[in-house]
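Structure ticket #2291
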Amino acid sequence: MTNNKQLQLALEIATMAHKNVQRRNGDPYIFHVLRVANNSTYIRTKTQKAAGILHDVIEDTPFDEEFLRQQGIDDAILEILRFLTHDKETITYEDYIAHICQNVDAMLVKLADLTDNLDQGTLPVLTERDIERFKTYKTAQQTIMETLAKEHPSIFQEILIDVLPRLKPRDSRLPHGKRAQFSSPTHE
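Resolution: structure written out below.
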C-alpha cells in the first residue's frame, strides 16, 4: 500500500477510534493527533506522520495492534506504535521513555506528542496535576533530545536549526553588548 493510502487509512481509523472524544479544552481529540502528525519540526516522513495519527489508538481505545494490521496498516508503522504504546500497569514512564529511545522514528513522534501536550494554551485551567505532568514531559523531552544528540547527531542538528530561530530571549532588556540566553528544548 502506498504511503498516501497508509495516511488515508490511518486518518480513517484514528477518526473512528477517537470519535466523540474531547480534550479538556473541548476540542475533538482528533485535533491533537493531527497536530502531532503535522509537526514539521519532528515529523519528517509519511510513515512517521501515519504513526503520529495513530499514536494513541492502541493505548487509549479498544483497538489493538491486530486490528490495525487487519485494516492494512503497514508493519513499519506498527513497529513505531509498539514503541509508543505505554502499558501503564507494568511499565514506569521512565522505562517507557527509555524504550522509545531505542527507535528514532518513535523518538520523533513522541517529541511531537510531547510538544503538543506541553502547550498550555490547550488547557482551560492549569492545575497542580498539570504542572507535575509538565515536569514529567519536559524530563522526557530532554531524555529523548539527549539520546538524539548522542546517537543521531544529524537529526538533532536539523531539529536545532528548525527550533532555534523561534526561541525568544529570556530577557530582551539586556545591556548593549551582552548576549541573550535562550530557552531551549534541550539541557544546557
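Closing remark: Confidence is low (pLDDT under 50) at residues 171-188.
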